Amino acid sequence: MFKINLAGRNIRKIALVLIVLIVSFSFASLFFIQDITKQDIETRIFEEQKGRQMEYTKIVSTHMSSDLERVIAMMNGLGNSIYVQEREYSSPALKELMQEEFGKYNNTINRFFILDNNDVMTVGLANEREPLVGSDLSFRDWVRKTRESNSTVFSDGFERQGLYRIFISYPVFDRLSGDYIATIGASVLADPFFSFYKNIENFEEGFLVSYNKDGDLLYNGLNKSLVGLNFFGPEVQDAVNHNEVANNLTKSLITFAEPSYAVYDFGAGERINTQQPVLVNGEPQYFLQVITPTTQIYSQIQDALYLEEVKIYLLLAGTLAAIVVLVFILVEWNHILQREVKRRTTELHESETKARELEDSYDAMKNYLQEVMKEIKREQTG
Length: 382
Description:
The chain is α+β, with helices and mostly antiparallel strands. It has helices at 2-79, 82-85, 92-105, 141-149, 190-195, 234-239, 244-256, 294-298, 301-381, and strands at residues 111-115, 121-126, 153-154, 158-160, 163-173, 180-189, 207-211, 217-220, 260-264, 271-280, 283-293. The strands form two sheets. Strands 1, 2, 3, 4, 5 and 6 form a six-stranded antiparallel sheet that branches. The chain has a five-stranded antiparallel sheet with strand order 8-7-11-10-9, sandwiched between helices. The radius of gyration is 47 Å and the shape is rod-shaped.
């Protein structure tokens, strides 16, 4: 009896230990699966974001390129018009033509003008105040470069009264003599021009940054105080904490004009930076970056992680419930077996007692018969 009770207690202890081990293993497995699930979701969302942001950066760059190329095509058409070829700069028809073309592109350019052979402005249109007709612009770098190269020039950026402008200058040659006769120019306000493309494709994350060929910032959607400064200068380098990854990425963009991306953290949080050159007629003129904090990306996974956690907890609860039921059944089965063993043992004990009683009765009867036989023999011989 004592052995049976001891065996029952041992089985219950073993069952309790097994439950604790199984629960511990289940929770360890849960946290392990959660970690793997989170990493998998983060990786998948990051790759989706990277692909989407690379595509968005390319689309923005393509739109910029297309708009600038259309402006150059318009300048080419104006330069080949009879009014410019005949130097009829005071013609009302020329101004009307320029006004018509300017109206088509005033979302891109904010000033439109013609310089004669002496680099003096002869006709000018503007969205804000009227350009100073008669102004000598020969001292401007982009005017000088246009004459020296005999090709379209995109200026590096010109700051005046806190506004940064990009100038596009197109040389005009006499179709018959080939002489340089005029320069058609337009200016683009950097801030509205680059910010216009921010919401293309409903891309709400991140901000735009653009550079000229020297690495000067023409636009910064996050920190406008850096506009006009060189990316590799001390002020901007202090702002990005001299981050090597950001420096190498920007240097490769300006040097090789190839699309790429990188992830880095210069102290303001981890970011993904995708970049593209802005090509005009196949030549890189400006450079574009789209920068998004990864915290903004990973915030999207909270709902997905919550659903995954609910699934895992439900699975764990079901598993634990099944384990508890199984252990309960095993314990009850053990109790039943113990009761059956106890009953059979009792029956066996009773059977052994009866057998011993019968054996004792048999021996007594045998002894009695032997005594009777002896008594009978004595009587016969006597």
